[in-house]
Amino acid sequence: MEKRIFQLNQLSCPTCAKKIETVLKKTNGVEEVSVIFTSSKVKVEYNETLVEAVELIDKIHRLGYRVMESKKA
Amino acid sequence: MSHQKLTTILSGSLLLLYLIINQFMDQPVIGQVLLIIAAITSGLPILWHALQALRFKVMSIELLVSIAVIGALFLHEFWEAAAVSFLFIFGAYLEARTLSKTRSSLESMIRLSPSTAVRLVHGISETVDVDELVAGDTVIVKTGERIPVDGIITRGIAGVNQSSITGESLPAEKSIGSEVYGTTIVENGYLEILTKRVGEETTYGQLMHLLEEAQEAKAPTQKFIEKFASYYTPTMIIAAVIVFLLTRDIRLALTLLVISCPGAMVISIPVAIVAGIGQAAKFGILIKGGEFIEKAAKVENIAFDKTGTLTVGLPEVNSVVAFSTSEDEVIRAAAQAEMGSEHHLAKAILHEAAKRGIVSDQQTEYQIFPGKGLISVSLNETILVGNMRLAEETGIVVNEFQQEKFTTMQSRTATTVLVSINGTLIGYIGITDKLRNNSLQTLQQLKKEGIQRIVVLTGDTYTSAHRTLGQLPIDEIYAELLPTEKAEAVRQLKQTGVTAMVGDGVNDTLALAESDIGIAMGQGATDAAIVTADIVILNEKTTNFVELFRISRSTVSIMKQNIILSVGVVFILLIGVLTKKVLMDVGMMVHELSVLAVILNAMRISGKHDIIK
Q1: What is the DSSP secondary structure assignment for residue B307, as one 8-state letter?
Q2: pTM of the shown model
Q3: Which domain holds residue B384?
């Protein structure tokens, strides 16, 4: 199990947070997602044998949000 | 310039141009073309976001706005289509800007860590990346620079501004042997520092970690409002469909979609909490989550551990009595037994030993009796250092003369410690502690702010506590408490109202955990206390208690205002839309304004002065 924190560019509407959370949660291998709206951070806990960090970043990108920084927690 | 900013400015100017043309010229076709271009410029990014989310089978607010805008275009309501999409992206842009401002005080703290450091290797200095430093490295820090690591000074002397850690900007004098913390600033001087901790291990790194966690911990009110919001949007969509089926009024149905975003509601609590936590951090008060702001605002009783909170916590030895031996021998024995203990009385004894030039480095093993003292065992000595209770329990004989001495000493000093070697009493050590500056004013202020009961819980005797604290407006002193008894006292206080416990030591952790809200105080606070506490005051300013309660109360009242504002706006809009007084453009504008209003309202929590520069 791996934990990562993604720093996004400033989220403006709280519903974006919900959107990102829903999409990541549906991803196979992702166990836990929390989006901290006020600091525009996404914390993900996932099984690294099932899904890679790049795939998660790509999903966030495709939703229209930029990942500025990704670090292991 | 960002994409978002560009489209906002472009569609905004088109709308403005339309208004001018509409005012001064009779050119309806040009006007309509302008509006259509404006609607498309600002509408396309919204539609794109909506479709992206749809590909993941997620319904978003952007989708609802897109439906409304497309619908308006089909109805030839070009002004409404343009106004709604422009207001949506302009609102998002403004919200992002103001939000990042609310967080600025927290962010400015995160940016404090220096990125490079000067490392000293075999007398040669080299500039390296901070990430390369490891424990054991020696770093050089000069005037005006930030210390990159936690460590011990091996050479030099300096005044260090520790405001990043403690909120206190008066420089602290540091010299060889002093501990220094990463991100504090050398105001004047030169230091060589032996690195002990780097990066996230440092005190500062851990504080940042706690602050981040704090933003995540949701307050109860927040959970409630999020639940409300999660029902609100689907309800509005269903309402829009029903309204359309019943009335066949597409405009009305689309307007309902426009106001179905619960933005202001969802944001109302977290912005207030972030602003509150950020404001508290400026004073060196670390609140570990929104929940604790709400609880702190409700506190009725405060229980203080005496030492290190109301008093300085650096007690000094002020008298020594020896029986058929020398004073130095009493100190030597006590110091040897207490070596390695974290107890504040131990520190006083060790300090006294150092002052008298008594060195003792014998290996000993000791057993602590919380609230009573300790017994240490070495090769040829069993030394007891503790109170009368411990002496009685271990069967140490105190004769009449010694008893009399004890009583007189107790009447003159705050704490009297008994010292015995191999079961024979050899003397007493008298230790006193001073009140902190402002302790009196702080307690008076707390009473004025509506705190019902202030009590003191202490392991010391009643006489000793009363002697130090007599002049303070304290309702009760509970003395000679063991750690479990402190917790029990807190449990009883809780029955009369929300109770905060303030402590600093290992012996307070039970009581801190038992209380409704545990507050650890001071740089002397032990790690155990900091971990257990819900709120940590990182400096020694007792006035911070008053600040803490003020900040939490104003945060909570801002939270309430925000809920009333956001829920109120939603209801007024709803009534306005259903009675056809509010159309799409006004609906969107009022909605965006309410989001901005809750953010701006939350910003009132932060004062204008940043202590941390």
Answers
A1: I
A2: 0.73
A3: 316-432
